[in-house]
Amino acid sequence: MKKVFILFFVFTQIGILSAQNCTLYYPEETGTKLKYTTYDAKDRITASSTQVIKDIYENEGVLSILIETQSFDKKGKDLGTNEYNVICENGVFKVDMKSYMDAATMAAYEDNEIEISGNNLEIPANLNVGDELPSGRLNISIYSNGTRIMGMSTALTERKVEAKEEVTTEAGTFDCYKISYTMTVSTMFSVRVEAIDWISEGVGNVKSETYSRGKLMGYTVLTGIE
Length: 226
Known about the structure:
By secondary structure, the chain is mostly beta strands. It has helices at 2-19, 103-107, and strands at residues 33-40, 45-59, 62-73, 78-89, 92-95, 113-118, 121-124, 132-133, 136-144, 147-169, 172-186, 190-200, 204-212, 215-225.
């Protein structure tokens, strides 16, 4: 009986995923853990993180994948966790911009009222080299006793599919789309950088690089899948 239930659950999930007509850039199995390591321009480790697929569910025709990210400093100290969703809706894969929230910064304000707004980062099905993708934005306001004490925003603009490339890391070799974009982070002042992500179907982000005026600042790579 248990085997019958497991098979029913598996085929139900496959049916849900197929019915949405999306290309999913995250694992499709609950419990999957992705491990990432971040380096500076001189290849020194500066941080690490994990992403765990916590749940996959459907609500009113929208497929959602709940992801928990845990961040660590270069010595392995836990900096906090962050949860967000990626969804498939009307054939478009959408990433909650909360994925760009810094866990350590948010942990410092956990006793405050936090207001979050913005839009999802979209990746349409059937990507092609040369495609220009919609921008994404995240706005965060922090309040203390009803008074706004801080505002932060992250904007991803000028997103473009540059190429299809094969990328090899410690986790394996993956067929990826190379997507370039500009990221602007604003608090009391603004910092603007150029970035490139390599994303793979069924996996997600395999590699990312960040540049300032054409000079490499650092990079993150997928170093394990469990």
